[in-house]
Amino acid sequence: YQPFVVLRMCSALYIIKHGDVASKRQSAEWVIANSDRKWTKLIKQAMTWHYGDPPGDIGQTQEFIRYVLKGAEL
After folding, report:
1. Proportion of the chain in helix, strand, coil states, percent, rounded to 5
2. What is the pTM assigned to this prediction?
3. How buried is residue 67: exposed, middle or buried, by Cβ count under 10 Å (0-12/13-18/19+)?
4. What contacts 2, CB < 8 A, 6 or more positions away?
């Protein structure tokens, strides 16, 4: 479920920043273009993941979740 979590976090961050909903792909592309480049590889891997592929870096995913939660602090 790691790729799903990464893409949902992108969606959540997009909603927090724009007050509107976008597709997971649009949200992910927006986060790649507008946030720290350190998330690019993680997000791109989640975008291209297919069933049976190995999951991404769980530690980095947890760090990304914390990053999004900080963005939620209004």
Report:
1. 75, 0, 25
2. 0.87
3. middle
4. 46, 55, 56, 58, 61
